[in-house]
């Protein structure tokens, strides 16, 4: 669920590393106050811990898919009504070699309690193991998150922060990403130049592509391609500049369907060829935003070259 999300490294605990987590918290506070969102893809468990909201098994399962299956398996065996010699024997056989230790998200082995490496999981202590397992998973990054919170509170007053839900805090710091509904906001904040008009067929195809062909991840990639960021501001007033769709001069005297678009991230602009076919336009834009990541000194994504279907696609990085 959060395969591209970030969590703190639990083993990052020396003074320098903890100071960096505190600095990150300060930057998050500045993002809230300046309304310049950061590209931070944190899972819900981190946002919840930052504001002290309760976490549950589902929050841990979102970053550790094996956790929930392990918990459910143990809970199923905690039913005393099922207790008999056969069940006890089966449990002991399955858990042989299992101690009160767990592998953290960063791969390090951690004891669930002092001396956990010497305490074997048995039928009689299965509930205790489950209790300590949950406690560890719910607070696995507590040291690092505590430092982030210290930094955040150095910039944003605690009484103000307490007004947020974890979802609202996520939006204030990192923006909304780009859902299909956010395309409406981007379209409102778009102007057209170089002879383009909002009623042009290729312009209408582009908005259709963003709304119906692309998923949230692809819309984020598109925004990163044209602006160098993967999340939109929250409101129209927070846009520092409008998205500009401009003429693609290189394809003006050639077949536009053979050309890739050119993005200008500093000026939030896109040179869009006048594509004549919807599927061709989708293919060309996906190719450009997927494989062209370098930005020139003038903030230009280097993609404005002709690509023919019967030739190898040679994309300039």
Give Rg in angstroms: 26 Å
Helix content: 40-55%
For the termini, the CA-CA separation is: 31 Å
Strand order within the widest beta sheet:
3-4-6-5-7
Q: How is the quaternary structure best described? A: single chain
Structural class: alpha/beta
Tally of DSSP β-strands: 7
What summary fits the major beta sheet? 5 strands, mixed
Q: Report the principal-axis shape.
A: elongated
Rounded mean pLDDT score: 85
The helix/strand order is HHHHHEEHHHHHEHHEEEHE
* Count of helical regions: 13
Beta-strand percentage?
5-15%
**Unreliable stretches, pLDDT < 50, 5 or more residues?**
294-302, 307-317
Summarize this structure as a short list of keywords or feature phrases.
about 325 residues, alpha/beta
Question: Quick recap of the structure?
Answer:
The protein has 317 residues and is α/β, with parallel strands linked by helices.
Report on this model:
- The chain has 317 residues and is an alpha/beta fold.
- Helices cover 44% and strands 7% of the residues.
- The chain has 13 helices and seven strands.
- The protein has helices at 15-34, 44-51, 57-61, 65-76, 85-94, 126-138, 142-153, 158-161, 166-174, 182-188, 201-213, 216-227, 278-291, and strands at residues 101-103, 109-111, 190-192, 243-246, 262-264, 269-271, 300-301.
- The strands form two sheets. A five-stranded mixed sheet has the order 3-4-6-5-7. A two-stranded antiparallel ribbon has the order 1-2.
- A hairpin with a 5-residue loop joins β1 (101-103) and β2 (109-111).
- α1 (15-34) packs across α7 (142-153), α2 packs across α7 (142-153) and α2 packs across α9.
- The chain is elongated.
- It starts with 14 loop residues before the first helix and ends in a 16-residue tail after the last strand.
- Residues 294-302 and 307-317 have low confidence and may be disordered.
């Amino acid at each position: 669920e959060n395969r591209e999300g970030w969590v703190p490294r639990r083993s990052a605990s020396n003074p320098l590393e903890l100071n960096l987590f505190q600095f990150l918290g300060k930057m998050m506070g500045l993002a809230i106050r300046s309304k310049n969102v950061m590209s931070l893809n944190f899972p819900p468990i981190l946002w919840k811990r930052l504001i002290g909201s309760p976490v549950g098994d589902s929050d841990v399962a979102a970053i550790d898919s094996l956790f929930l299956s392990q918990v459910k398996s143990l809970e199923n065996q905690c039913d005393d009504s099922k207790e008999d010699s056969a069940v006890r024997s089966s449990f002991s056989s399955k858990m042989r070699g299992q101690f009160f230790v767990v592998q953290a998200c960063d791969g390090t082995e951690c004891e669930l309690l002092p001396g956990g490496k010497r305490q074997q999981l048995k039928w009689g202590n299965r509930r205790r193991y489950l209790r300590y397992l949950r406690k560890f998973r719910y607070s696995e990054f507590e040291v690092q998150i505590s430092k982030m919170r210290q930094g955040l509170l150095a910039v944003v007053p605690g009484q103000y922060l307490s007004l947020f839900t974890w979802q609202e805090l996520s939006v204030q710091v990192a923006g909304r990403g780009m859902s299909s509904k956010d395309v409406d906001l981007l379209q409102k904040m778009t102007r057209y130049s170089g002879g383009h008009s909002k009623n042009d067929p290729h312009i209408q195809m582009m908005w259709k592509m963003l709304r119906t062909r692309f998923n949230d991840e692809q819309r984020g990639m598109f925004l990163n391609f044209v602006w160098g960021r993967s999340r939109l501001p929250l409101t129209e007033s927070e846009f520092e500049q409008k998205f500009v769709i401009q003429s693609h001069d290189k394809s003006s005297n050639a077949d536009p369907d053979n050309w890739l678009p050119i993005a200008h991230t500093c000026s939030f602009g896109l040179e869009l060829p006048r594509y004549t076919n919807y599927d061709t336009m989708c293919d060309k834009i996906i190719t450009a935003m997927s494989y062209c990541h370098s930005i020139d000194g003038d903030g230009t994504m280097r993609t404005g070259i002709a690509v023919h279907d019967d030739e190898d696609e040679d994309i300039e990085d």
